[in-house]
Amino acid sequence: DAVMSVKASALIFLLQVFGQSWSQNRPRPNIVMVMSDAFDGRLTFGPGSKFVQLPFVNYLRELGATFLNAYTNSPICCPSRAAMWSGQFVHLTQSWNNYKCLDANATTWMDLLEANGYVTKMMGKLDYTSGGHSVSNRVEAWTRDVPFLLRQEGRPVTKLVGNMSTVRIMGTDWENADKAAQWIHQRAASSEQPFALYLGLNLPHPYKTESLGSTAGGSTFLTSPYWLEKVSSELITVPKWLPLAALHPVDYYTTYTKNCTGSFTEEEVRRIRAFYYAMCAEADALLGQVIAALREIRLLGNTVVIFTADHGELAMEHRQFYKMSMYEGSSHVPLLIMGPGLKSGMQVNQLVSLVDLYPTVLGEEDGYFSKMQHPDWVLSEYHGCNVNASTYMLRSGRWKYIAYADGLSVPPQLFDVTRDKEELHNVVLKFPNVRAHLDKRLRSIIDYPEVSTTVHLYNEKAFIAWQHTLGNNYSKVIGSLRWHVDWQKDALANERAIDKWLSDSL
Ligand SMILES: *[C@@H]1O[C@H](CO)[C@@H](O)[C@H](O)[C@H]1NC(C)=O
Ligand SMILES: *[C@@H]1O[C@H](CO)[C@@H](O)[C@H](O)[C@H]1NC(C)=O
Ligand SMILES: *[C@@H]1O[C@H](CO)[C@@H](O)[C@H](O)[C@H]1NC(C)=O
Ligand SMILES: *[C@@H]1O[C@H](CO)[C@@H](O)[C@H](O)[C@H]1NC(C)=O
Ligand SMILES: *[C@@H]1O[C@H](CO)[C@@H](O)[C@H](O)[C@H]1NC(C)=O
């Protein structure tokens, strides 16, 4: 396998395909992107995951290029997708949380492809515009600076359904994959124009925990024996955890609000991980539906197929599930690309992120992609729920530097991801020069204290506006959100904490 470095020809290829510089004397290829939710990018590494069978991910890797260092620009659904579709970092579009992302009329690369003569179609989960997700989700994001600590999520659990013949569990995803396959067949028969198809999957995002009521979040890892059989449960390891007292303060807030501070048996953790991997296997089969459709009508040869995800899933690494974290399980996404002119089995070391999928970066003069040379760093940021300080990750070389808030009030973290794959050794005090260098670099890319201030102000303003719409119902409504069990233990004190937060900031 050819391991490519800085000037990753695959990336340049990708940009050329998306941009207008595709060679005139060659037909423009079709473009098909399958974006799953919550797929841990590390599962795509060669020679293939030892934990779970992912035949279609493996197929893409063997025939195309695998990006070994691909990251989300924000480890949560909507902001991540906003970055992917707009090609801009989330602070530039102010995509602060699952509720506040792009305007519905924002220009995406799909729009540009359409303007350039492509027939385009988007199917399944999109989730990049403002206004979506639960009220709990947005209120938790706005109030993350309030100094109270409330459990918001259900404790992660597993649920086994069906039997060895139960294949289609995530029904909506299967319907959408069927529609995508149908659309591919129809397109191929009817049009001279190249097409671009996007299919967004829900899997392997955990399911809503029904027993916790209508406001519950998704903390149920659910699968059937059919998919569980694709997992080598005996190989699954239990991730090491730091003791609770040694967690970074922001991680402690995250673990607490995700309801993971209680004790877990090794068996329980292994089972959650096995179920998560089984859900990845189902996602892989959905990708397979699309690949099979292209193959059936002999379009695979002139179609660029891309598989990626909005973020990963911690699956109990760092004593957490879900994402919202800069640790690898959450921030490292899959990026596999196969297409005409692209060498088989290429592994690309270049650091890339979802903003790189945007087409017009080629034409822009802001220098980001000057001379088609990608910078040797990746920026990811997080401003949403379950994390009580804006978070900024700079990946560069072997380092992952994580700065918070104004850079002073919360200690930063530094990990050598090549040597400390589990990210359990924060070496920020051991390498002050590296820290200083990376912090300076980060500030040259983003004025992060300033961005954090902007988010604080937005949070207060958005919260007050929401409060006003509730009138006399405020106490009842805020007390019945996802955190209601803990809230009700002292509703008055919690309301007072919010009042104080608002008055302190005036
Ligand atoms: C999109 O809509 C917003 C209002 O929601 C408006 O301010 C903006 O000008 C519109 N942008 C475009 C490109 O039409
Ligand atoms: C947190 O988990 C416990 C079980 O460990 C459960 O009883 C409780 O309902 C969960 N809290 C929330 C808010 O879901
Ligand atoms: C599996 O479940 C389906 C649907 O509930 C049922 O029809 C079928 O008989 C079951 N098969 C076996 C082998 O138990
Ligand atoms: C975040 O929450 C943790 C746990 O309550 C607390 O120790 C820490 O001070 C908080 N950090 C900020 C910046 O509010
Ligand atoms: C408060 O709730 C009641 C009952 O659900 C509803 O009729 C009323 O319109 C609400 N008031 C406001 C200001 O939302």
From TrEMBL:
Residues 1-23 form the signal peptide. GO terms for molecular function: arylsulfatase activity; glucuronate-2-sulfatase activity. Its cofactor is Ca(2+). Gene3D superfamilies: Alkaline Phosphatase, subunit A. The keyword Signal applies. This is Sulfatase N-terminal domain-containing protein. Belongs to the sulfatase family. It comes from the Eukaryota. The keyword NADP does not apply. InterPro entries: Alkaline_phosphatase_core_sf (IPR017850), GAG-degrading_sulfatase (IPR051849), Sulfatase_N (IPR000917). Residues 29-363 form the Sulfatase N-terminal domain. Keywords: Signal.
